[in-house]
Design a protein that fits this description.
Length: 547
């Protein structure tokens, strides 16, 4: 068969459902092979968006998402989303085309060394130089992409190789049983936990990747130990749980950090140093950390755990739960008191009836409106910190934010992919006006796919997070304000429905209407960010951690 046909059959063999992408002339053989396949091509308006979609598919399904671009500028447009997948631990295969490598009459036109460009930001990058290599390279790419820590892989398929003939067939897909920790490691962890006075569990991104909510819930219920999570660990355990303290939305100085500073042992489950740190270690302090993950810790100046339990998270947590006894030495009174402080100052705060609304009011109204398993897909900006801090997630992977690369422009593409994976669930993209405009062209993609999707554009006409840090650093207000289109008309120009919140009390009712009416909806929502200064620069600096 033709090499491009074999390539597609290998993808089908891996269970690929979608390819997100923007093909070029170097992909035409592959495009023709896709036309007759079971794989659905999702044509996007920018390669970066296609990469975000593939990475999100990988994040939600734990199977490799696939995307496609041409050579040169198509491949370079992948770079941000490749980095997003790599740092975020999302399995994704990035396919690029290339001019003929055996004989070409176009000199160096559009040619850069894409394979070398991709190597530092992928787990694997390879040019296919022989059609007969396709089966093993695709099988190996999927294995590498999905192995812990998951991430991005890249294959380049040159135009002449794609048109070659071959008699090879796809490799058989095999499952690899993950390793488990030795009993000595389990027993050492149990001993450290039982001997601690104030143990605290921290749930991070690796726990969300591995669906360990049931096992972790059993551990928490048996021990009564309090827990918190990182931004990318939200929802692994229902955050309505009576032992839940909160989310580390900032690195230090919040009410939650009173608890982490009081702990003498942190049981760190699935943590990855690429996520913004939720606490800092200091060699002079007595804090001990148990690192429970699929892979050893990457140590640095602020993270150097004293014990590691490496291997399958589900199995290892089960073993620890079976072995451990609830200790009479554990002190939980402090955590109980600080939980009350957190609930009162973060989750139960009463917001004024002013317009534009405060971030806290926006968060609480959205949480009150959406279903328990609604998926929120975030761009990156100041509002993301407020949602991470103030929004309680009830299910795993229902708060899709990026606290690793923390790139702007991902919110809308992520929401599109989430809706394709989970069409039965409510999906809301929450974007700042800056980040939304970086990939707003994908509104056309959402409309073309006839998705029921709500996009909330938080408008403040500035790059607000940087502006806030500019002011808090004592710098003059300069260079961060911009203008915006009429977002209602902008949405309507794509065939979507546009809405504008213009007075207090409208958000909940308008969002409720949009969630009931199948269509692509955009809601323009102004925001009052004065709470940034009141809370983060005043309240948190003046707070006192309870004794």
């Amino acid at each position: 068969m033709k090499a491009s046909d074999l390539f597609v059959k290998c993808l089908e063999n891996e269970g690929v459902e979608y390819i997100f992408g923007l093909p070029g002339e170097e992909n035409l053989d592959l495009l023709e092979s896709l036309r007759n396949s079971s794989i659905r091509l999702i044509l996007t308006r920018h390669e970066q968006a296609a990469g975000f979609m593939a990475a999100t598919y990988g994040r939600l399904t734990h199977k490799t998402g696939v995307c496609l671009a041409t050579l040169g500028p198509g491949a370079t447009n992948f770079v941000t989303s490749v980095s997003y997948a790599l740092l975020g631990g999302m399995p994704a295969l990035f396919i690029t085309g290339q001019k003929p490598i055996k004989k070409s009459k176009q000199g160096r036109f559009q040619i850069i060394d894409v394979v070398q460009m991709m190597k530092p930001i992928t787990k694997f990058s390879k040019q296919i130089v022989d059609a007969n290599n396709i089966p093993h390279l695709i099988r190996e790419s999927f294995r590498i992409a999905e192995a812990e820590k998951p991430g991005a892989v890249h294959l380049e398929l040159p135009e002449d190789i794609a048109s070659e003939s071959t008699d090879r067939i796809p490799f058989r897909v095999t499952e690899v049983d993950p390793p488990r920790a030795a009993w000595q490691s389990i027993e050492a962890a149990v001993e450290m936990i039982e001997n601690a006075r104030r143990p605290l569990v921290l749930v991070a991104s690796g726990a969300n990747r591995n669906n360990i909510g049931k096992e972790l819930h059993a551990f928490l219920d048996k021990t009564g130990i309090y827990f918190c999570n990182t931004q990318m660990g939200k929802g692994v355990v229902d955050e309505r749980h009576h032992q839940f303290l909160g989310t580390a939305a900032i690195s230090d100085g919040d009410y939650l950090h009173c608890a982490t500073q009081r702990a003498d042992l942190i049981i760190n489950i699935g943590h990855d140093v690429t996520e913004k740190p939720p606490f800092f270690m200091d060699e002079k302090e007595r804090l001990k950390v148990i690192h429970i993950s699929f892979y050893p810790a990457q140590m640095d100046d602020i993270y150097f755990p004293q014990h590691e339990v490496i291997g399958c998270l589900r199995t290892n947590i089960q073993k620890i739960t079976d072995k451990i006894n609830k200790s009479s030495n554990w002190e939980s009174d402090y955590y109980s008191r600080i939980k009350t402080e957190i609930e009162e100052n973060i989750y139960d705060t009463v917001q004024p009836d002013t317009f534009p609304n405060t971030p806290q009011r926006i968060v609480s109204e959205i949480r009150a409106t959406v279903e328990n398993d609604a998926i929120l897909a975030f761009d990156n900006g100041m509002y993301k910190i407020w949602f991470a801090r103030n929004y309680k997630a009830y299910h795993p992977n229902t708060v899709l934010l990026d606290n690793a690369l923390a790139t702007m422009g991902a919110g809308l593409p992520v929401a599109i992919a989430a809706k394709l994976v989970h069409p039965e669930q409510q999906v809301i993209a929450i974007c700042g006006d800056g980040g939304f405009m970086m990939n707003s062209q994908e509104m056309e993609t959402a409309v073309r796919l006839k998705l029921h999707l709500v996009v909330i554009v938080i408008r403040d006409d500035a790059y607000r997070m940087i502006k806030w840090k500019q002011g808090s650093s004592g710098f003059a207000d300069f260079g961060l304000d911009f203008g915006n289109p009429d977002f209602v008309k902008y949405a309507e120009s794509y065939g979507a429905q546009g809405h504008r919140i213009e007075k207090n009390g409208e958000l909940q009712s308008k969002l409720g209407e949009c969630l009931k009416q199948p269509a692509v909806h955009l809601i323009e929502l102004p925001i009052d960010y004065s709470e940034n200064e009141r809370v983060f620069l005043k309240e948190l600096k003046e707070k006192t951690c309870l004794l």
